[in-house]
Predict the structure.
Amino acid sequence: MTAPPAPARAVRRVGWATVAAIAFTVLAWSSAFVGIRAVTSTYAPGPMALGRLLVGVVVLGVPMLLSRQRWVAPTRREWGFLVLCGLSWFAVYNVVLAAAETRIDAGTTSILVNVGPVLIALMAGVLLGEGLPRWLIVGALVAFAGAVLVGLATSEGSADLLGVLFGLASAVTYAIGVLAQKPALRRLPFLQVTFIVCAIGAVACLPFAPSLVETAAAAPASATGWLVYLGVVPTALAYSTWAYALARVDAGRLGMSTYLVPPVTVAMSAVLLAELPPLLAIVGGVVCLSGVALSRRR
């Protein structure tokens, strides 16, 4: 009698709740690029980052206080990951992202930032043991070629070129933050992780508090309304739905889902701000997204 065949390796399916969380995150983060661009004439990058993070801390703190979920004390190693995530993805990222959008349009900035998923996949392959397939390397090279085209499209002025550099810096800090967040989510609840890293980011941005108070006192209601929106939706809610999904999907695979952000941002920007990226930047964005798609081939 022959032995029964070994069972095939189960494929981890992504549940509908995770898909919904990813979809909400994409839409919310797309709107964040538009919201930031809408208030750059009123709020400087530092005060803007602090303002949205403070709102995020308050919004996240309410369910933390009301939730019956037990607080899980992070280990020293987990605290290291949380601090790294809070400083890179919440503090530095939000400041340099806003700095980029003071110089270049929302759609172009979103294209540059979304080089991040390729960086996440590359770093995850090395640091988290998720592998470095050949197509990931090819896709990374194509994506960076697209970023070069975006840079060429905005290279007519030094301020625009500086905006491109800020956008790429945002992509790097975004990638570092995701990879630091992933290990913490293996044991800690996703809402607790989001609250902690948002609070760490807010504390790091406190030197901008005097400027935030001064600007808010004279800012039009529309600009402050956008700032509150940035704190509630793209920060508190979308970072929470992202953490929920990241706890259930590997970092490289989830990072690739954000390739939808640039086209959604361009569409929102065209409708709400009457603003479109330069044609060459759009071409570069298509090349970037093609690189992202290639990087997921098996």
